[in-house]
Every structure is written in C-alpha cells, then in structure tokens.
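Entry:
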Amino acid sequence: HPKPVNPADLENILVPRPPPTDKSTSRRGGSSGPARPRVPSAISVDSGDLPHRSGQGDEQGSESIRCYSGETASVVGAGDHGSEGNGVQKSGGRAPAGVPLPSSAGSDTRSGSAGSRKSSAGKSSRTSSAGKREADEQDEFYSREVEPLVSELASLTKKKDVNRIQELAGEIYSALESKGCFTKQFQHRSHILKVIFKLLDVDEPRVLLRLARLILGFKVSGNNLLNVCKLVFKVARNDKNDPYFLEENILNLLLETIRIADPVASCEALIYCVGAIKFLTGNADILKRLAKLDCIKTLAFLLHSINKVLAAALRNLADTSSGRDRFLTHNVIGGLVTLMDTYPGDSDLMLYISRIFSKITLHADCCSVLANQPLCYRAFVNLLKRHLLKEDLVVRLCFVLGNLTIKNDSARLKLFQEVDSIETLLLILKTYLELDREGKTCASGGADNVQLNGNVEGESGTPVTKVEDVLIKVMRVLANLSINEDVGSTIADNSDFTQLLLSVVEHKDIASHEEVMTNAVVAINNMSFYTTKDVKKMDAHLGMADSLLKLVLSNNMEGLLEAARVFGNLTRHKEVRDFLSKNKVDAVMVTLLDSGNRELVFIACGVLINFMLDEDKRPLLKNEGGIKKLIDVLRDFGREDWQLSGCVCKVLVNYSSKIHSSVGSFGEAEVAELIDLLTEYLDKDCALSESLASAADEEMREYIEDAWHDEFYQVGEQLLKRIEAHSSPLEPLQAPS
C-alpha cells in the first residue's frame, strides 16, 4: 500500500516545487547574502518537492512561459455513468456533475445560437443595436486612449525599460477598467495579452505584478491562467515582495480567480494561486487585507468544489476490486464521515458520499468500519432531517443504515440512542406515505420518477417510484432496528409506526407493489413480537390480523410467507386464533405443509403449534390430511433440519395432549411410520452419522450435535413415549350408549 501521508509533508502535496534555488537562502532570513528582489523569466515548476519562500531569486534555466496561447471553450460534464446526470456534453474534456462550471472562466461559446433566442424580433434587434453601439464606443475609446499605450508597451519588449513598463501597465489597466473592457468579448483582448506575455522576462517583481494584474483582469483560462498563476506564485515566494501585493487590487484578482476557475480544468493553476495566498498569509498586513476580502469564504468554496470532485472519483473507485481494501487502509471512510458532519448543507457533496457508502456497505468489512465511526449516526440523522424531501439522498442514507443494522446489534443501539433518530424515521415514513397517497412519485417534483428497486444504484427488479423506494428503505431500517429487544419494544410501543405500516398493507396491492408490501409486513412482524406480550392491545392484534388476511388469500408466495410469520406471533392469543380459524387460516397452514418450500413449511408449523393449543381446532389437522403431511416433512427434511423436525414434533405433541389411543389420534399407518422415524432419529449414531462425517471441522460437528439435542431430541422423545404409551393391539371399546 502507498505510504501514509505525514502531516509534516502536506505542503509537498498542496504546492508544487519551483525550480531549484540556492540552498543557502530561506523565506524569513538566514540567507548567506543580500536578497535580490527579482524574479527570472523561467518559472516552470516541478510538482515534486516542498516549496519555500526565499530571499534570493532562482537561477534561470527552466522552461520559459513568455508565450500566449489561444483559449479553448470549457466543457460541461454529463454527470454520472447513468441517468442521473443531465449536463450538456461539448467537444473537449469533461467536468464531474455537481461541480459548478463558472461562466466567466469557462468558454468563448457563442451566445447568439438559435437555441437561445427567446425574445421577440424587435427586442432582439434593439439589443443587437445597443451591443453594436457599445462595441463601437469601445473601439473608438481603444483607438484614442489605449492603443497608443499598448503600442508603446510593445516597443519596450527589447529595451525593457522597467519603470516605463510599470507606468504603462498601470495606465492601461485603469483605462480598460474605466470602460468595462475586461471581458472576453473585448475584441482587442488577444492583442493586448500577446504584448504583455512578451514582457514577462523582466526581473522586477513589482513590474511583473503589474503585468499579472492585467492578465488576471482579462480572466484568462487554460495555459494562460496556469502561466500567470506560476508567475504570481514565484513573486510571492520572496517575502521582500510582500509590500507590492498591498498595492492596487492584485489580491482581489487572485481571490476572484479562485472563485471563478474550474477546479478540474484549472486544477494546476489553482494550486499555484492558493500556494501564493499561503505564502502571503505570513505577512500580518496582507493577512488583514485578505480577511477583509472574505478570503475564508473563497477558499471554503474551493474546498467544497474539490470535495465534490474527490467524492465523485472515490465513488467510482469504490467499485474496483482493490478499492475496498484501500478505503480501509487509508481511513477514507472516517474522512468521508467527517465531511458529512462538517458540510451537511451541501446536498450534492452529501449525495456523492452517500453513493460511496451505498456501494461499500454491501461488504461486511466496510460496514463494520462505518458502524464504528463516532460521528456516523449523528451525521446521518442530521442529513435525513435537513434534506427530508431530497429523495435521491434520503433513499441512499436509509439504504446504508439498513446495511449497517442488518447484522450489527451495536449499530442498532447506536442509531437508536442518537438524538431524534426514531422521530426522524417516523417523519420520513409519514411524509413519504402522504406523498404516495397523493399519487406523487417523487418528492422533489423531478421528471425521472420511476427507477428499478433493489440496490439503490440500479439493480434489476420491479419498477418502483422514488417515493416507494424511500418507503422500502426506511421500513427496512425499522425492521432491522426492531431485532434488538430494547429498541424493538420502544418502537412497538409507538402505535404510529404500526398504524402507518398497516396502512401500506391495506392500500397496496402485492401483485404490483411486492417489495413495498413485503418490507412493511417484515417490519410489522418484528414489532408484533413485542406487542403480543401486552394483552391490553388485543384490539390492535385483531386489527393487524384482519389487515394481513388479504396476503394469505393472495397467490404471492413471498407475501404469504411474511404474513404467516406475523400470525406466528399473533396466535399466542386465543382471541386471534379464533378469528383466524373462522377465516380458514389454520386450514391454509395445513395446506402449506406440502408446499416443498422449507422456510414456508417451518413457518406453517410454527403457526400450527399455536393452533393445536385449542382442543376445538385439533380435528382439522387430521381431517385435512395434516398428520400425513407432517410425517412426510419429518421423513424428507428430518436429518437435514433438526429445528424443523422439532417443530413437527411440537405440533403433534400439542395435537395429542388429550390422547386416548395413538391409532385413534394419528391412524394405524401413521403410528407405525412415526415410531420407526422417531426411533431412528433418537439414535444419535444413526441420526448423525452422515452429517458428522461430511462436516468440515470440529466446530461444525459440535453445531450439528447441539442442534440435534437442543431442537429435536427432547420433544421427539416426548412424542415417541406418548405414542408408545397409548398404543395397544386391541381397539378401545366404545362407551355404552
């Protein structure tokens, strides 16, 4: 892995190294001789070593920058690799979506294209006439006031009269500024810049700053911006030149350059520009001036823009095979969490980071690291509250929280204990259910309303609206949180959650909204585990059972499975068992025993265990062929799933609690098969020989033995003893009438 960055070496990264200087000089004294306040023309910079300000000029020998290059149009990036970006792609390069591309530093595109003509012909004509008059006035002014000065300046390219160059540069700047000529539309701009660049080999720092002032005033871009920023950086390295930066408005222009330059297209130029600012802040007077000019706000804006670019790059790198390992090694996750906590108002940056987390939290190692970040839960809750109606962000944040809490009980507690966390989840559920009831498919009113469900990054699946996708993800978080007993009981005590979740079941059709429905029922199931402990909530339990009946009668196996789980909790109460029996739910559970779906069979057995507590409901099991089906389950899955075998035995134990005759209760053939199976399964060597032989290690063998003993052996032995105790070769006599 790359060597971790030493904080002491950060300056190496922030500012590139200029050409080699005399090692005997330093920024603040310590030089071996008098400093020369001059800057040579050669200022090409190697980006390797640590820069330092010196009191002596560098020697010549590097590449010169005295050339002016024509500027090219900037490019607006098209955004992400998907449907989310809606930028306009032009020829050339690209910039990441979400990074503002300043119009003033961007392109020389033609504003008079047909696509932009929205005004009437008369207005367009008047505007054109006004623009022509302004251009004519500027031409006349240039010919009269500026051209003589520029011509004289051009004549000094060989003579190099630095005093006169300084005077002319100041006069030209003042003249151009007075008539608003510092624009890219000013037709003499290119000629003036060419003249200026030919003079950049003078040695006087003060003169160079005057010339740089003119170049920056024209808001150049590309190589021209890079060259002038190198020049200013070079002058700023020598602290003897500090007083020159307090003259006129060079500091204003530097800050304006930082504000308007594209951090992607002009990244190297900005490094030099910020490097110059960094040097200059060592001067107390300049520091005060920069503070008055709101330098902090300017640099903060640049920092936000850079963060967006970095986050966009990291999002793509998170998909690489080695990306996760690098994320963990270099504490990228912790840095991203700090950004989320520091800049919550920047929704674009937050969206980039949430996309990164939605990718990496699909993996347990990254999930664990993120779950242990101290600021993680505060940042997530704060963002959910702050950007409630920005569904693209909310859905990803909830997706990540669902990943964190699916297996990590510590994460469930930490999220629960965060201030306003449960209230915020309830608010999200309420808000997006209201939007769904109103028929809205997205909260922000955008046109892209439907996406594929599953992974929020766009895996294939049933089309869902953006509002529904938020509901799916937030209900998943609630279901995961409810696994923890302390958290689950608190959530279950809030009737608002249950009512909102039941309203999803009541108003949605599982055929067309399967994932929304199943997530709602899963959350209801986890909460019902706690609510059913309270007999006082019987009306709520009956209402819950009534709402879920529609799923039992549907042809959707997933919906039926999740509804049956809830019935497993609700049927602890006789009132609910009576209600469900009247609606034939017990008969449906018997039917499911031969479904072939092991999970569904297991859930059906769990519900039947509770139904068999009531004597009046026991005959249905035999009448519907349930005894034979249970024996088939025991024979087919017994050796492979001791927990399921134990459930089968529990159903039969409850069913036969008032047995008089084994044959009368179970049937003659059924008794014989049960005795054979139970005798075989209760013999440890016979029951476990195959599974123990194929076990991978000792730990797996111990697990198999424990499952057999804890889940099956005791209840299986109880059932076998009962059957044998009530078996007789003689049929019992009927009682005399």
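The first helix runs from residue 10 to 14.
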